[in-house]
Write a structure and sequence with these properties.
It is built from five helices and no strands. The protein has 118 residues and is mainly α. The protein is globular, with a radius of gyration of 15 Å.
């Protein structure tokens, strides 16, 4: 069964189960959950325009969203995690309007990872 874009985003990027509990999901785990190949999951991500290649090219901090989702799922309720996930997914959809092949909105300067070289 193919998930919705929201369900796939929650599981793959936010690390949330369908019950909005925290759990690590890599590509293989997501594929196993849906009974498909990792290649098919990659196709879904591309089809929904939420593959990893999109995120550096939109104004959205995915690492921060993942961290907050995990914190909420671990220390609050499933309802709070669901609410955060819905809000965050809407933010991603809005941020996709900023997509540009020429832009690169990277949050981390890997040449100065600790920020102490400036």
């Amino acid at each position: 069964m193919k998930p919705s874009a929201f369900e796939l985003f929650c599981m793959y990027y936010l690390g949330l189960t369908p019950e909005f509990q925290a759990r690590f999901h890599n590509l293989n785990a997501v594929a196993r959950h849906y009974g498909v190949s990792p290649r098919e999951v990659e196709g879904w991500l591309l089809g929904f325009h939420i593959s990893a290649s999109y995120f550096p090219r939109i104004k959205f901090n995915l690492a921060e969203a993942h961290g907050k989702a995990q914190e909420i799922a671990l220390f609050s309720s499933a309802d709070d995690a669901r609410s955060f996930a819905r809000k965050t997914f809407q933010e991603v959809l809005t941020a996709l309007d900023t997509y540009s092949d020429k832009a690169y909105f990277e949050d981390v300067d890997y040449n100065d990872i600790w920020g102490d070289l400036k």
